[in-house]
Amino acid sequence: MWKCFSTTSRCFSTSTSNKALKWWDHVAPAPKDPITSVTEAFLADTSPTKINLGVGAYRDDEGKPVVLQCVREAEAKIAGCDFLESVSSAVSSKLVEESVKLVYGKDSDIIKEGRFAGVQALSGTGACRLFAEFQRRFYPESQIYMTDPTWSNHHNIWRDAIVPERTFHYYHRDSKGLDFSALLDDVKNAPDGSFFLLHPCAHNPTGVDPTEEQWREISYLFKVKNHFPFFDMAYQGFASGDLDRDARSIHIFVEDGNVIGCAQSFAKNMGLYGHRVGCLNVLCNDAEQAVAIKSQLQLIARAMYSSPPVHGILLVSGILCDPNMKALWVKEVKAMANRIQSLRTTLQKSLEHLSSPLNWEHITNQVGMFCFSGLTPEQVDRLLREFHIYMTLDGRMSMAGVTTGNVSYLANAIHEVTKFG
Amino acid sequence: MAGFGKAMACREHVRIRLGTRFMSSSSSSWWQSVEPAPKDPILGVTEAFLADPSPDKVNVGVGAYRDDNGKPVVLQCVREAERRIAGNLNMEYLPMGGSVKMVEETLKLAYGEHSEFIKDKRIAAVQSLSGTGACRLFADFQKRFSPASQIYIPDPTWANHHNIWRDAQVPQRTYHYYHPETKGLDFSALMDDIKNAPNGSFFLLHACAHNPTGVDPSEEQWREISHQFRVKGHFAFFDMAYQGFASGDPDRDAKSIRIFLQDGHHIGISQSYAKNMGLYGQRVGCLSVLCEDEKQAVAVKSQLQQLARPMYSNPPVHGALVVSTILGDPELKKLWLKEVKVMADRIIGMRTMLRENLDKLGSPLSWKHITDQIGMFCYSGMTPEQVDRLTKEFHIYMTRNGRIRFALNHEYRTLTSTPAWQASIPAMLDIWQMLSTRSRGLPRLIAEAKPQIVEEVILI
């Protein structure tokens, strides 16, 4: 297909040049991402009744993406700003500090004493990947224990960082709640000093969180076993509507003397999805160790993308560093969480009203953005083909995609595919 | 490569064995073995510069364009684009491969506005986190699909290239590039290295405005390199971070790439808008891989996305929107091309002025390399010790390989208005000596020259 511009004076080995053209013959198409492919299919669907319950992105009651008021105001402030180069380290440090306050509490000694290594990251994905690379670099023999199930991309992240994975019991398929005793057994049986990936709140995909009492037991066990807990906090604010309360599990672990790491994302709770803003922090002994660890994290980032994109950083910084903006944000997070909560109730009631033979309590027991519906792949497929309702094959529904306008349609559809058990 | 080896040694860490040796109560032992990382040779310069309280300080380190007042430049076309998109309240995730529009426009810059490869959909391309991100994605892709391969990197090259391929676990080798005596291209040694590399080797090439040396092959030399690549069946990966900055004409700056394309090579390209659109902090770039056909391009693109997903999921939206707003509007695009030319011309102007001043001095030496070298940087030939001295004593910051970003008017004014200036002349003379290959007559010439010429000449 391509033209060959060879001149007569050039002669070269035909077999070599032919071989050279076959660089990527062996490259097969990659499997579709189980989450993003749902959105792709949804976008291609022309049905007027289609509903996207795939990706965990918040929608308003009209099913539209939401830009928070605090973000609008932050945008207005930075318009025309000269910050096109890498963010100054002063702004950067301030932002990291404000982010980390969300994790440990604003009056935490950890922050006062500088006992954390914190860097901005490319949202939650980037924060997890930085940690996974750091884990392999400094604990090359270690593995990572992940909940069964977990966000699909967690597997990709630790795999590409070349850290072997194992799963530990988490979700109880029959009760659609926490398989607590099996979880504790797995924690006990893991070799001392194992790395665990925990969701501090609003577990993705199940929406099942341990109770405070259960977290205390887990934390205690971690201390006994000297395990390392790495928290991926992508939905702070979405579980209870209260940012501080959603970080409770982390506080418990820290109070017990566990040394932790934490990935944060501002994608969902600030609606900054496309801006890729997040934070990674690792607890340290002292400020000196924090400097060392931070420098190593930055080294990893340098060879990946050099520095994080500045626009999102300025937005988050503008919000978190201004008490009024921050207060507005806190209110808006609560409103988002409340809307999801009320739709959960409505959906559950609708299904009961339809005299569904199944128990739908888990819809309101589960918290955060997702409902792990218990629908089988076949039922999910039927929902797609017959009703143009999109969710991931594991039956995970993003409740943010449910509206007062579509909840009846959704309930009817679910009832249709499940009424015979 | 000694510096690189040292950096590797610094980063060696003690492995802590878990299990029986581990105590359950001491939670502080987790990261005891973590040493501070060595400072990045380029970014570390700016950090040190910012921390320096001296009023006389000058930063000729990082490759970031400055105007005559030393301020970062925000291009007019970028301001206008930002104005248009302000209040744009789409914060949704981009697809994993990034902004389709941005990528389309970006490919045109590299492959040509009417490239048949674009029409035939033979290019697998994704938005990347600027040039670093594009190189890293390619390095990871190379590791995954040519696991036995290594990468040949020019000597010298941008420091971060070494980090990128190392972290991607692709072994590196260097090939001859810069000739310290001529301060130009070591063309015969380069060709030898190309010939001696095993058939089908991967090479990293700088498309234009080589960083750090400013030395580019001529068009004829590129043709010979391309021919030899055909003979050997090598793979050419171009890092094009300065398109537009070399000659002021983006098409001309892509000539090396166009030559390779004409010769039928299936190349890879990393493109960055950090410098030529001044979008440093927004991290906008593009990685492309030319494939045999559309089907292969689809497969390769899906694999590139597969690599991006566990790194950052999808690329940042804002910078991409700025780029596609500019390149998608003929008027804005024209404005951008004008502004790029202004930036490039300013640098070319400084080089010319410097060379003319040197010639005016009646120097018996050849300063041709100052105008022969291209782009933002001058490779001075200073030793790390001399650089350290400049920094410690005179608060002049640059990377320890002696790479200097071309100083502009304001920096001359700053430096010459300070008391430290007089004190610095002897040090400058030392350095001057190093810059020349035949130094005997030079110190006398400098001492006799008029002060203002001395100021301008020395400050490179």
TrEMBL record, chain A:
GO biological process terms, semicolon-separated: amino acid metabolic process
Species for this entry: Salix dunnii
InterPro entries: Aminotransferase_I/II_large, Asp_trans, NHTrfase_class1_PyrdxlP-BS, PyrdxlP-dep_Trfase, PyrdxlP-dep_Trfase_major, PyrdxlP-dep_Trfase_small
Domain Aminotransferase class I/classII large intervals: 49-414
Misc. comment: In eukaryotes there are cytoplasmic, mitochondrial and chloroplastic isozymes.
Keyword Repeat recorded: no
Role of this protein: Important for the metabolism of amino acids and Krebs-cycle related organic acids. In plants, it is involved in nitrogen metabolism and in aspects of carbon and energy metabolism.
SUPFAM superfamilies, alphabetized: PLP-dependent transferases (SSF53383)
Family: Belongs to the class-I pyridoxal-phosphate-dependent aminotransferase family.
Cofactor needs: pyridoxal 5'-phosphate
A GO molecular function held by the record: pyridoxal phosphate binding
Protein's name in the database: Aspartate aminotransferase
Catalytic activity as recorded in UniProt: L-aspartate + 2-oxoglutarate = oxaloacetate + L-glutamate
Assembly description: Homodimer.
Entry GO terms, CC: mitochondrion
Pfam family, one: Aminotran_1_2
Top-level division of the source organism's lineage: Eukaryota
Gene3D superfamilies, alphabetized: Aspartate Aminotransferase, domain 1, Type I PLP-dependent aspartate aminotransferase-like (Major domain)
Keywords, sorted A to Z: Aminotransferase, Pyridoxal phosphate, Transferase
TrEMBL record, chain B:
Pfam families: Aminotran_1_2
The EC number(s) this enzyme carries: 2.6.1.1
Cofactors: pyridoxal 5'-phosphate
Miscellaneous comment text of the record: In eukaryotes there are cytoplasmic, mitochondrial and chloroplastic isozymes.
Catalytic activity: L-aspartate + 2-oxoglutarate = oxaloacetate + L-glutamate
Protein name: Aspartate aminotransferase
Keywords associated with the record: Aminotransferase, Pyridoxal phosphate, Transferase
Keyword Transferase annotated: yes
Enzyme class: transferase
Protein family: Belongs to the class-I pyridoxal-phosphate-dependent aminotransferase family.
Single GO term (MF): pyridoxal phosphate binding
